[in-house]
Design goal:
With 306 residues, the chain is mainly β. The chain has no helices and 22 strands. The chain has two domains: 152 residues, Immunoglobulin-like (Sandwich), CATH 2.60.40; 118 residues, Immunoglobulin-like (Sandwich), CATH 2.60.40. It has a six-stranded mixed β-sheet with strand order 1-10-5-2-13-16, with no helix packed on it. Strands 8-7-11-12 form a four-stranded antiparallel β-sheet, with no helix packed on it. A four-stranded mixed β-sheet has the order 14-22-18-20, with no helix packed on it.
């Protein structure tokens, strides 16, 4: 979240997200919620307008398909729900300081039902969480809020409700943009469970691993997969010393339904000898959600040694 004195501070969410993936097994989960169950709809007549104490604007809307909801002990599959991630900017236009709590934002849907925002990090795909803040006159707070709506419903109005003295709206906007991005989640584990496929001459001599973890990314963000290449036969004294292994191609197998290739930091052919070589595969996140295994095929060539 960002706070700024004066005018509205505009936040561009997710211009470029660099994600380094570890190779292996994948669990396709759009996101996992922690803690309590989702906030329930409050009905269509529970809020009344008190006064415009806060000015609210929404600069971006992103959708995230709900696949699981988790408590501390277990996760349950969910269907028919979509999270709307809204980037909001709140300005104190009153003469007094105002405490702003994310849990007091309410979203009115196209069916005229009201839904409370999730608090904190309950939605893992948020990149810039709107946290509790106390604003002075003219100050602006910015960040993302998440609301879970039934599939087919869209946001119509965002309001902020005050609990002092009663539940009443002190800021609202109906200017909510259409969703222009979706969320994808790729989780990758160890090399024995898949992820990188190596095929071709001397393929058994090549070790290929990625270096780090897992993440969520929004449509059109850049995903950088760092692949570390090592020739297991390099060096004198090995049973296959004198052999060579060359990577002749690196292919993203998910082009049709998942991330698409932008390019490589180093183009094949790549001969792997005595040192480790890092190659970065740059991908673009898809316009529709991708929740599955990211697989990469390396094709090798080379000569057989001793």
């Amino acid at each position: 979240m960002k706070i700024k004195n004066g005018g509205v501070s505009k936040i561009i969410i997710g211009a470029v997200l660099i994600v380094v993936l570890v190779i292996g097994a994948v669990v396709g989960i759009a996101y996992v919620k922690s803690g309590t169950s989702p906030p329930t709809a409050t009905g269509s007549t529970s809020l009344t307008t008190q006064s415009n104490i806060l000015s609210i604007t929404v600069s971006q809307a992103i959708t995230d398909t709900v696949e699981q909801q988790c408590s501390q002990n277990s996760c349950q599959p969910v269907t028919g729900q979509t999270d709307w991630l809204l980037t909001v900017h709140v300005t104190d236009v009153s003469l007094n300081d105002q405490a702003v709590q994310p849990g007091l934002f309410v979203l009115t849907s196209s069916s005229n039902a009201n839904y409370w925002a999730f608090s904190g990090n309950a939605v893992a795909s948020l990149q810039n969480i709107f946290n509790y803040v106390r604003l002075a006159q003219g100050q602006v707070a910015s960040g993302q809020l998440a609301f879970e709506l039934p599939n087919g419903e869209t946001p119509a109005k965002l309001s902020y409700s005050s609990t002092n003295p009663t539940l009443s709206v002190i800021g609202t906007t109906t200017n909510i943009p259409a969703a222009n991005s979706t969320v994808s989640h790729v989780e990758v584990g160890g090399p024995l469970n898949g992820g990188i496929i190596i095929t071709g001459t001397n393929s058994s001599h090549l070790n290929a691993v990625a270096i780090n973890g897992t993440d969520y990314f929004y449509s059109d963000e850049t995903v950088a997969v760092t692949i570390q290449l090592v020739d297991s036969c390099a060096g004198s004294g090995n049973y296959c010393s004198g052999s060579t292994v060359t990577v002749s191609s690196i292919v993203d197998d998910n082009e049709s339904s998942g991330p698409t290739t932008i390019g490589l930091s180093r183009n094949p052919p790549i001969t792997v000898a005595t040192s480790t070589i890092d190659v970065i595969l740059y991908l673009k996140a898809p316009p529709t959600p991708f929740n599955g295994m990211l697989t990469i095929t390396l094709t090798t060539s080379g000569s057989t040694g001793n």
